[in-house]
Write a structure and sequence with these properties.
single chain; 4-stranded antiparallel β-sheet; 2 domains; Rossmann fold; 20 helices
């Protein structure tokens, strides 16, 4: 996390940030109105109870047995209404909270998965996951509970104060003298609580990001015996999160102690005065009991509101963090009115004077004035040292990034003028580090074309030399291969990824070191499959092992982001230069 983002996160946040939830609440107005009606019902019934209690208390000495029976029957009716209203309020509010949080999670996930890879250079995946889980849980607590409780207590506070005036204006005036003493610590400590809540959430997010990175790289961590260092870093972040939480808890506990003591100390003083009024005949015992109940309701409401205020502040911080994701600006945008790729696609690719550097490395040129035309159906190999710009060509062709200058086009149409999902349908990719999902082998291959039949999946696997090892798995093609394909070897993962690309049956095929993890026998089988697959398709092959690209129609040699040579294997070897040196090193070493 950058210093700038840390400074932004440490700044003061306001509960008004919760207004950002309005678009998610708006579709459920009827549900909200129902919940509010149930809330008003329960609050009104609760405010009637003290009157009933006063009638009963005073009725013991003045009313007939029949009236007492009616009072107790009314008590029972009130209890029924209170039970029904409370149950209905819980159902509606909880359902509303779960529905809204599901919508928020889906909206954030949809937004994040649509972001181009350049955006992920500035944020940890673990932090995004923290926002999707921890932050949404906080908001769920507010929508599904805290807001409802806050509104109920607000109604109880207003209604209780009104009934206190009706019962005894004198005692109510004394109670109101306590209000400033209660409000001041809520305001002062509430500001500090808001900052501490935000800091706590930030440390949790950093801890989650660190844990995610370590767990995804656990094999490397163990290979270099860095378990202790990784545990230490995670432990430090966890402790900082705990320290921030401890300060938040301490502040909130202090605020609760002060508020409750002031409220109840004031109530005791008022009751003492009220008891003397009863002895003097200024009010009845029932009226004093009614006043006491209303006073307890009011004080309880104030205490509950002070607690909920802290929850609202935490949820406000969480809401801001989620809205940051929803409002994030993608550096790669689809046009408002996209142009369609001509169908059927021919597969012509043109790079015209392309200059590009990665956002995270603005001072280092990845491509420097690259001009390259690839004819439909042509197989072109991109070779050169690591970091020369080969894989960058594939990333720009997929429009993961836009070049700073120059154009990239397919079939004569510039990529920025088309919707990305339009032209990507005609591209199949086999990356150097193949992505295997936590699913069955069959589903991993079918990811290339979700509507493919089982027979088509198996045919693609045979073409990628994957059928034999897949059928040997415990449940064959339906074997669960684990997170990131941990049950498969590197070569097996690469063959599954190749089968996925074969199944896609796209006009443009991108192979980024597609055979780098294969043994000699498997590489030969896969190379034959690739040669067959490349027929009639435009194929770009990125390779360090020159033996795999000798049959390419054309070999393009890159160095420091520039094209330094172009030709066939034999012509480039005869030319001398970088390719000849690389070929001599590899083939001499192989011999």
């Amino acid at each position: 996390m950058t210093d700038t983002s840390q400074a932004e996160r440490a700044s003061s946040r306001r509960v008004g940030a919760l207004r950002a939830l309005s678009p998610f609440l708006a579709p459920y107005r009827i549900l909200m109105l129902g919940a509010f009606a149930a809330l008003v019902l329960t609050a009104s019934v609760s405010l009637i109870l003290p009157i009933a209690v006063r009638r009963v208390v005073d009725g013991f000495t003045t009313d007939t047995a029949e009236l007492l029976d009616q009072y107790f029957a009314a008590f029972l009716a009130i209890a029924v209404l209170l039970a029904i209203g409370t149950g209905l309020r819980y159902y509606l509010v909880t359902r509303l909270g779960e529905r809204v949080i599901a919508d928020i999670r889906r909206a954030v996930f949809d937004r994040v998965t649509a972001m181009s890879p350049g955006w992920f250079e500035r944020i940890l995946t673990g932090e995004v996951l923290s926002r999707l889980t921890t932050d949404t849980t906080l908001i769920l607590s507010v929508i599904g509970s805290s807001v409802s409780i806050a509104l109920r207590n607000l109604l109880m506070l207003v209604g209780g104060l009104a009934m206190l005036f009706v019962t005894s204006a004198k005692l109510t005036g004394l109670v109101l003298l306590l209000v400033p003493a209660v409000v001041v610590p809520i305001v002062v400590l509430g500001r500090r609580l808001r900052k501490l809540s935000r800091a706590n959430q930030d440390w949790i997010a950093q801890s989650s990001g660190n844990a995610s990175e370590a767990l995804l790289s656990v094999a490397t961590v163990q290979a270099f015996t860095q378990e202790g260092a990784v545990r230490g870093r995670f432990g430090d972040l966890t402790e900082k999160s705990y320290d921030a939480a401890k300060q938040r808890i301490t502040t909130r506990a202090l605020m609760t102690v002060i508020v409750i003591f002031l409220v109840f100390a004031g109530v005791v003083g008022v009751l003492w005065i009220g008891a003397r009024d009863v002895r003097a005949g200024g009010m009845t015992t029932g009226e004093l009991v009614q006043f006491v109940i209303y006073a307890v309701m009011v004080s309880g409401s104030v205490g509950a509101l002070s607690d909920i205020w802290g929850e609202l502040q935490r949820a406000a911080g969480a809401t801001e963090r989620l809205t940051e994701l929803l409002a994030a600006e993608d550096p790669v945008q689809d046009p408002a009115v996209p142009q369609a790729l001509p169908r059927p696609a021919r597969g012509e690719i043109v790079f015209d004077d392309v200059h590009f550097h990665y956002p995270a490395r603005p001072g280092q040129s990845a491509l420097d004035g690259v001009t390259l035309r690839i004819a439909p159906g042509e197989t072109v190999a991109l070779v050169g040292p690591s970091g020369a710009g080969k894989t960058t060509i594939l990333q720009l062709l997929l429009r993961y990034y836009d070049p700073q200058s120059g154009t990239v086009s397919i079939d004569g149409v510039d990529l920025p003028t088309m919707a990305r999902d339009d032209f990507r349908r005609d591209i199949a990719l086999v990356p150097q580090d193949p992505v295997i999902f936590a699913a069955s082998a069959r589903e991993n291959i079918r990811f290339g074309r979700p509507d493919a039949t089982d027979a088509e999946v198996e045919e693609a696997a045979r073409a990628a030399a994957a059928h034999d090892f897949l059928t040997a798995l415990p449940e064959g093609y339906d074997t669960y291969v684990g997170e990131r394909g941990v049950m498969l070897s590197g070569g097996q993962k690469q063959r599954v990824a190749l089968a996925r690309a074969i199944l896609r049956d796209a006009k443009i095929l991108l192979l980024d070191e597609a055979t780098s993890a294969l043994d000699a026998e498997s590489e030969l089988a896969v190379q034959r499959a690739v040669d067959k697959l490349a027929e009639g398709r435009t194929t770009l092959v990125v390779a360090h092992r020159l033996a795999t690209v000798k049959k390419a129609d054309r070999i393009v040699v890159f160095d420091h982001g520039r094209i330094v040579a172009t030709g066939t294997h034999d012509s480039l070897v005869a030319e001398g230069g970088l390719y000849a040196r690389l070929a001599q090193l590899q083939f001499t070493a192989a011999a």
